[in-house]
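Let's see one such:

===
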Amino acid sequence: MAKTTCAKFTYAKYSAGGDGSAAISYTGGTMLEDYLAKVDIQEERTDEKEYADGHLIDQEKIPTGVSMTLELVNNNAAICKDVLGMSEVGSSGAEELLLTEADPPFVGAGVLMANRHKGTTTWEGYWIYKIQFTHNGVSAETRRERTNWQHETIGGTGMLVQPGATGAKGYYAHKKGMTEEAAVAWLKNHAQISVSGSP
């Protein structure tokens, strides 16, 4: 039976480019070591159909966006501040996170997935070039003496960009069949994180 592990949530704050004037650039690239409870990436497409004499003769399913939803095992303060745009207030040792009226920042975001099948593990990666996340909330239910927690989720919709100074436009990059080392390097390259881990 095949098994999948979701890990290495990586993000970087969108800085400039992606509009055809220059290659897209990021700052503050960060790769987290925590596992993810769940990753959901969905393409959004048009569904335009053309009929003649009551029969379908043509249709178009053109990509219009891509959505990413993450169930976080550990929604740490860095994600809240860097990805969701929350502010940290309060004195040292008594900090709180404040949701303000400010828009969440645009970021590039990606994940890795390890697929294990018949003793062989291969890795694949996704990188969405420009996305704005929001916090989808958290819920808990008390049953007798136990509290059943659900993982916090964040989600957003990716935007159409031109990653390079020239070339095609796109929503995300996807690569399969990598070793773990190659997959980490691939994702860091997209987030513009140096080999040493410093952005």
User: Anything to note?
Assistant: Residues 3-191 form one domain. DSSP finds two helices and 14 strands in the chain. The chain has a mean pLDDT of 83.
